[in-house]
Write a structure and sequence with these properties.
The structure is a homodimer of 269-residue chains.
Chain A lengths: L6 E2 L5 H12 L8 E4 L1 H8 L4 E8 L6 H8 L4 E5 L1 H7 L8 E6 L5 H5 L5 E5 L5 H13 L4 E4 L9 H7 L8 E2 L4 H10 L3 E6 L4 E2 L9 E5 L8 H6 L2 E4 L11 H15 L5
Parallel strand pairs in A: 1-4, 3-4, 6-7, 6-11, 7-8, 9-11, 9-12, 10-12
Antiparallel strand pairs in A: 2-5, 3-5
Chain lengths: 269, 269
């Protein structure tokens, strides 16, 4: 195979197996890579501090590889497969014919929390991958330091979460499968105030001083945060709403809290 | 058929055709009814100012009809169909076996805009039904008066939009397929300030006085508002973001604007 000619791969090729397995399970590959599909996400990967391990194109989108190979300066292997095979693998109904395997940067949680006035989102039991991705996008927009995921929370590598994050997953550190003790312990060690977001009760969000380090705790769609979390948090806060309205979308609630903190800090943007 | 015994209906029954047609097209039925599925949405319908025209249950969920029939006080007709048929109709992969046809209340747009300090969202080209539904939910939470939809915007009756609205679609008036002239004209007549939300440029949202009547204009995911809208709006505003971040999720951007307006008004909630 001469340099610059991508390898043509069939259904049994190990690379396709890695993509298929990752997307089917909504998880990392066995060797810890994140599989992404679509022109925008692949572009985002190339402008993020991640390692692009491999590129895969459908035959009809093969010409899209060129610019990415140039951007990678020969440091990435490209593969091409048939349109039919690509479609059978891809997590979307109308795939764009370009995909990548990425290795995300890892950073110790303690480093993120130690940032001055760190802004953190903690998702506890959020089930909708779109909500998780949207929170990552808002976190990046407001200069957030990290996203912590409690037990029974959807995977950030679910293709819908990756898509909703619009690439923020490649830049905002995410920590998974944390126990309650780990979350509250780490926040305490680093002086990060824990603010539980509730649909009612607690203080009005805009009445809480959010100019110091703060972690916003967001619960499961529908049921919200468990009582144990509400009682352990430093503060319970609510977004004031019209009487009779049950709750906001979970990603919206988290985003409003991040916005309010940024606003109080005079975030210029 | 004795009173209280729901009719058992098969695939060719006109009622099932109405559900199938509505869900397949993501639209109202031909006679203007909204089809909804799931326990939560049917419950929401019963606590909203809508007319419940018919209830449909899957055989295995038939006992769920009782409480709704009681709530309707005999003013609604109930139907039961086989689980297999129900599943084949329903817009979700794991339906809950209960559905309803609703007639939403209609209210003249001018009435909504005439409300004191009316808060309005105007979606122009938003494609994601989840985003539209989420905006409706936030609108209701912050006491919004109406949602206006410009050309090429997803239908609010798309099942994913209905679901994401968590019932707010039954209570917040939505106006569809409005031309630019209609939107700007109606806002002008009622002294509603038009605020175009942009990813960059314009004034910081928190620097704009939002205590009077205001309509927030939100553009298509990815491309945002067209230049013509930006130039016709009274104000262009942005949510301050970290340098290099392209944009927020469209529903999040709209929700932040509604929150900011509510905050400035001292919305107690």
């Amino acid at each position: 195979m001469k340099a610059g000619t991508p390898a043509l791969v069939g259904a049994r090729h190990p690379l396709l197996r890695r993509f298929r397995e990752a997307w089917r399970r909504g998880e990392l590959t066995e060797d810890g890579c994140c599989a992404v599909e679509g022109l925008h996400l692949v572009e985002e990967a190339f402008r993020s501090p991640v390692e692009v391990v491999a590129l895969l194109a459908a035959r009809s989108a093969e010409e899209r590889l060129g610019r990415f190979e140039a951007a990678a300066n020969g440091r990435v292997r490209s593969y091409v497969t048939s349109d039919r095979l690509f479609r059978s693998l891809a997590p979307t109904e109308t795939p764009q014919g370009i995909a990548a395997l990425l290795r995300l940067r890892e950073q110790p949680l303690e480093e993120c929390l130690a940032r001055a006035n760190a802004l953190v989102a903690v998702l506890m039991g959020v089930q909708d991958p779109g909500n998780l991705g949207t929170v990552l996008r808002s976190l990046e927009a407001f200069g957030g330091a990290a996203c912590l995921l409690g037990p029974d929370t959807v995977s950030p590598f679910n293709p819908k979460a990756v898509r909703a994050s619009a690439g923020s997953l490649f830049r905002v550190p995410v920590y998974r499968r944390l126990r309650l003790e780990e979350i509250f312990g780490a926040c305490k060690r680093h002086g990060v105030q824990t603010v539980a977001l509730a649909a009612d009760g607690g203080r009005r969000l805009s009445d809480v001083n959010l100019t110091g380090a703060a972690a916003f705790l967001v619960g499961r769609e529908g049921s919200g945060l468990p009582g144990e979390v509400l009682s352990r948090a430093d503060i319970v806060a609510r977004v004031p709403m019209t009487a009779g309205v049950e709750s906001l979308n979970a990603a919206v609630a988290a985003s409003l809290a991040l916005y309010e903190a940024a606003r109080q800090r005079g975030f210029a943007g």
